[in-house]
Structure prediction request, 177 residues.
Amino acid sequence: MAVGLTLYDVLGITTEASTDDVRKAYKTKALETHPDKLEPTASDRERRAAEGKFRNVCEAFQVLSDPAKRKAYDERIQRAQLNKQAWGEEREMRKKEREEWARQAKERSEARMKTRADLYENIRKVKEEKEMRAKLVEQFYQELCDRNPEWEIRRREVLMRKEMREKGQPPTRQSTR
Prediction:
C-alpha cells in the first residue's frame, strides 16, 4: 500500500461508509484491480503491481467489513493523526529554537567583529599618537640642538659610552671643557 493511503482511500470510500458501501466498493475495486483482467502480453512488472493492488483491496475489505477490526483500525488512524500533529508542533518548536539560536549566534559574531574592529581602531590611534609624539620629540630635540650644539656632542658621548659598556670595555671619560 502506498505511503499515506488509508484503507478507506484504497476502496475509495469515506470514513462514514456503511458495511454495504464497503462491500459495493470492494466488488468494484476487485474487478478493476484483479490481475486476471490484464492483457496476456502484460509484463511481469505490471502483473506484480496489479497483484499488489488487489491484495491491498482485499486487506481493506477484510478490515473494514468487520466492525471490531474497523473500530481498532479507526482508533489507530486517530492516534497516528494526533501523533502527527504533536510531532508537527514539536518540529515547529525546534525550528523556532534553531532560528533563535542562529539569530543569537549571528549577534554574538557581529559583536565580536565590532569589538575586534574597535580594538584595531584603538591600536591604529595609539600608533598614530606614538608617531606624532616621536615627531614632536624629534622636532623639540632638533630645536635644542640648533640653539645649543653641545647637546649633540653630549648625545654622541652617551651613545659611545653605552656601546662600550655593551662590548665590555671600560668607558673613557672625555672632557668637553
In short: The mean pLDDT is 88. Helices lie at 7-11, 19-33, 44-65, 67-147, 150-167. The CA atoms of residues 18 and 52 lie 25 Å apart. The first helix runs from residue 7 to 11.
